């Protein structure tokens, strides 16, 4: 919107809390109005199809103007069934898609593996939606930022908006959290799931949306491994390939709690085409959570809930992480791909990094941020010392 407005000669300013973070920074980039269709979403489908139809031209114009790639690919998507129950659910969805005259084709197990040779033998079928596609959200936003500024737009990435200023029923500007007021003739609210929380909006203008918790990992396989071509989905998780060989793994966890989310990587390793390839986390849960502090706090507070003492809760959380990671890594040891590292040792290394990333959040529940550094160090030592000794050899603990 901002790019198009600036190109038409309108003086345009974008006010952001952070540059390309939040949902954009953690999105997988699926453009799948057919593959992600659910029952009762016919009106949303019409909007999605219209948007998808404009995407190729939009991306081509953006890439030509900026010289930047967006990671866009009309690759198609394949929803696979891993058992008979999954197949029954997918067949119902496929019948619904066909009743709306959508391009969705049922594939048996062999046909699925012809499309994607890396799929496991135990799949029983799937639905191929040839006109679904994908994009790299971060790359897309980088290109949009450049195009917007080239067109004369002003981008402020450290300017969180507190409220919309309204006079005589019209938006006349916005007030930043810093107290600064930016006067304007028109305001476009594009704050995603936070749009309804802005101050100053009349009730009829508030968007009834809410955030939904999700999990995302970015993995990289060995160079000789067969790469995915399509977006792959099961009923639980999805895989979105990137042009540089990375693989985005995601799952939406809506009202399902913390433990369900932690099982994401294990579900993927059991269900989808990791096959004989060891996939390394390049930008996994630690960075995702670190960049989304609100989400990180939710994870920690859920993990440390209950009536037990803080240290007992903390140990319980650590044990859960260690168990989940060790189970996943054990699969690769059995294949002879982790000969020089025990699964438990690798799991502990990952947990150590998680603890370091989380220490400020953990400490915030037990000692004031204004406390003297020595007091904070002592509190940290008392709080996690036993857990660290349980996890790591003494030199690494130090």
UniProtKB/TrEMBL annotation:
Residues 1-260 form the FAD dependent oxidoreductase domain. GO terms for cellular component: cytoplasm. Signal peptide: none annotated. InterPro entries: FAD-dep_OxRdtase (IPR006076), FAD/NAD-bd_sf (IPR036188), Tet_transcr_reg_TetR-rel_C_sf (IPR036271). GO terms for molecular function: oxidoreductase activity. PANTHER family: GLYCINE OXIDASE, SARCOSINE DEHYDROGENASE-RELATED. This is FAD dependent oxidoreductase domain-containing protein.
């Amino acid at each position: 919107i901002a790019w198009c407005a600036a190109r038409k000669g309108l003086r345009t300013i974008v006010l952001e809390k952070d540059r390309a973070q939040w949902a954009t920074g953690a999105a997988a980039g699926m453009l799948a109005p057919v593959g992600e269709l659910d029952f009762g979403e016919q009106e949303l489908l019409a909007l999605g199809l219209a948007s998808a139809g404009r995407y190729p031209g939009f991306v081509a114009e953006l890439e030509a103007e900026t010289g930047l790639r967006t990671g866009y690919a009309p690759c198609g998507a394949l929803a696979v069934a891993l058992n008979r129950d999954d197949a029954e659910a997918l067949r119902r969805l496929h019948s619904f898609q066909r009743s709306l005259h959508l391009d969705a084709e049922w594939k048996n197990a062999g046909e699925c593996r012809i499309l994607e040779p890396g799929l496991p033998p135990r799949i029983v079928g799937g639905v191929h939606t040839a006109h679904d596609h994908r994009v790299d959200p971060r790359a897309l936003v980088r290109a949009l930022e450049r195009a917007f500024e080239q067109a004369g737009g002003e981008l402020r990435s450290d300017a969180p908006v507190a409220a919309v200023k309204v006079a005589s029923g019209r938006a006349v500007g916005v007030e930043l959290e810093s107290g600064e007021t930016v006067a304007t003739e028109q305001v476009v609210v594009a704050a995603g799931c936070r749009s309804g929380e802005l101050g100053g909006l009349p009730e009829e203008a508030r968007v009834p949306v809410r955030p939904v918790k999700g999990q995302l990992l970015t993995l990289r396989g060995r160079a000789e491994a067969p790469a995915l071509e399509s977006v792959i989905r099961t009923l639980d998780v999805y895989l979105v390939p990137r042009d540089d060989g990375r693989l985005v793994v995601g799952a939406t966890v809506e009202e399902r709690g913390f433990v369900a989310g932690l099982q994401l990587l294990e579900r993927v390793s059991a269900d989808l085409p990791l096959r004989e390839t060891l996939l390394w986390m390049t930008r996994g849960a630690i960075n995702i959570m670190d960049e989304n502090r609100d989400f990180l706090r939710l994870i920690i507070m859920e993990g440390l809930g209950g009536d037990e003492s803080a240290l007992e809760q903390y140990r319980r959380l650590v044990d859960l992480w260690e168990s989940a990671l060790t189970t996943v890594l054990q699969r690769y040891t059995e294949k002879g791909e982790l000969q020089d590292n025990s699964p438990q040792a690798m799991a502990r290394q990952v947990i150590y990094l998680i603890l370091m990333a989380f220490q400020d959040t953990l400490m915030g529940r037990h000692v004031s941020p204004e406390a003297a550094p020595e007091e904070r160090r002592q509190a940290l030592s008392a709080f996690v010392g036993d857990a660290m000794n349980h996890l790591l050899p003494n030199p690494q603990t130090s």
